[in-house]
TrEMBL record:
It comes from Caerostris darwini. One of its GO terms (biological process) is skeletal system development. The gene is Pkdcc. InterPro entries: Kinase-like_dom_sf, PKDCC, Prot_kinase_dom. The chain crosses the membrane at residues 21-38. Keywords: Kinase, Membrane, Transferase, Transmembrane, Transmembrane helix. Residues 79-356 form the Protein kinase domain. This is Extracellular tyrosine-protein kinase PKDCC. It comes from the Eukaryota. GO terms for cellular component: extracellular region.
């Protein structure tokens, strides 16, 4: 590959100029195409050169503060603790430190499938193939800046040199994004049901957002690997293969069958377009890869009928994204408020003695089905009465500690104990001992 690069360097200055113009065209074409496809009646972003790199003007979706703080090519020289994370057909991803921030850095994978495939084509050289592959990163920059949402990773900046140097990792095409933890089924199932509910809510909001465009955006390469968790929130990080227009047709409906299932959908062809096909496919894929694994399992018994109804809507695409979103939002409201609880006439708290600002040693921790951590018995509760009922119905539980730590729903984290011993001082906790 280095030989090919050396050979390319011997080309005339005219060819070099053509390459630079081609690179600029890649940027402009990707931006303009995106804006006209998902037309929200915005003016395409303008392109300019600044300090030897291409920059986009302020997007209508981007505040002037965010635009001013965007990272650029100079940031590539300031990174610390660079750690390789993953590599795909097009990109390599790294975890890096910049000051007190941890970021995700995406660059062209010069050893990836896209460049290797390109090099096998006739009259293709490394620099040509680099530019072709880099165009996918440019498309990602344009898309991420234009479809911003709390459940889509935030782009923090980018580097597009006017004259990129393949051999210099600090002078190459790059994207800077929020860093998140990758997920898999095991990690998802180890989360508390409350945290899995948060992920389900995020997914419903994301699908609703994608369906609001003139032609709903399709997540064609829908896999769990395309998402990360950042501060408990699920976020889409890979938009390489998103579809920016509805399925086109010729008088026949657009149909699809889900892999490993007998579930199929068909959307009628109207004026050569299958309106709603992308939306339904997004719903089905979300149900298959996420919802069926995370929403029904471990839910409070009183909410089983609701979670099963929502899961079914995802698996059959029987509701549109707006209706599904409303169902999930209502579920969250019921859970946060405690409306689902069958309030007992028994006042369980009367069976406990209260000690303010007191805690119990960890040696009295024990495992239970409610735990939300790798150790001890711990869960969130609406109030002390709910915690008292849980402890009362558990023969191992002799005490519980109500902390001031709250979850994303506002519920309070509670630790259940098998004994108490010498009490410990803790200003942020209240201890309840069984009488």
């Amino acid at each position: 590959m280095h030989k090919l690069y050396h050979r390319k360097q011997t080309f005339s200055s005219k060819c070099a100029t053509i390459l630079k113009i081609s690179f600029a065209c890649f940027i402009l074409t990707n931006i303009v195409l995106f804006y006209y496809i998902v037309d929200r009646y915005q003016t395409p972003e303008c392109l300019r050169t600044e300090n030897g790199e291409w920059r986009l003007s302020v997007s209508s979706n981007l505040s002037k503060t965010d635009h001013f703080n965007e990272l650029n090519c100079s940031s590539l020289r300031k990174f610390e603790k660079v750690r390789f994370v993953a590599a795909g057909y097009t990109k390599s991803t790294y975890k890096v430190r910049l000051g007190n921030r941890t970021l995700s850095l995406k660059t062209v994978n010069v050893e990836g499938h896209d460049i290797s495939f390109c090099l096998h084509q006739e009259d293709r050289y490394l620099h040509d193939c680099f530019l072709l592959t880099a165009s996918k990163l440019l498309r990602e920059i344009a898309i991420l800046r234009s479809i911003q949402h709390p459940n889509i990773v935030k782009i923090l900046g980018y580097c597009v040199p006017v004259d990129p140097d393949i051999s210099d990792p600090r002078h190459t095409v790059a994207i800077f994004e929020e860093y998140g933890e990758p997920i898999d089924v095991i990690k998802l199932l180890q989360l508390s049901w409350e945290d899995r509910l948060r992920i389900s809510l995020g997914l419903s909001r994301l699908l609703k957002h994608l369906s609001t465009f003139k032609e709903p955006i399709a997540l064609n390469d829908f896999r769990r690997q395309q998402f990360v968790v950042i501060d408990g929130e699920l976020k889409l990080i890979d938009v390489d293969d998103v579809g920016l227009q509805e399925q086109r047709c010729h008088d026949k409906p657009c149909c699809a069958t889900q892999p490993s299932s007998n579930i199929s959908i068909c959307v009628p062809c109207v004026n050569s377009v299958c309106h709603g096909f992308n939306e339904k496919m997004n719903i089905l894929r979300t149900g298959r890869h996420f919802i069926k694994h995370i929403l029904p399992h471990g839910a409070p018994v009183q909410l089983n009928s609701v979670t099963n109804r929502i899961t079914s809507a995802f698996q059959l695409a029987s509701l549109d994204t707006n209706s599904i979103w409303r169902e999930v939002e209502d579920l969250v409201t019921v859970f946060k408020s405690g409306q689902y609880r069958n309030v007992s006439k028994i006042r369980y708290l009367t069976g406990y003695k209260t000690y303010y600002h007191r805690d119990v040693s960890t040696k009295f921790d024990y495992r239970c089905q409610l735990t939300v951590s790798g150790y001890g018995c711990m869960t969130s509760v609406l109030d002390a009465e709910e915690a008292a009922e849980i402890c009362w119905n558990d023969s191992k539980c002799k005490a519980f500690v109500l902390t001031n730590i709250t979850t994303w729903t506002g519920r309070r984290i509670t630790k259940f104990k098998s004994g108490f011993g010498n009490l410990l001082h803790n200003r942020k906790a209240t201890l309840f001992l069984k009488l």
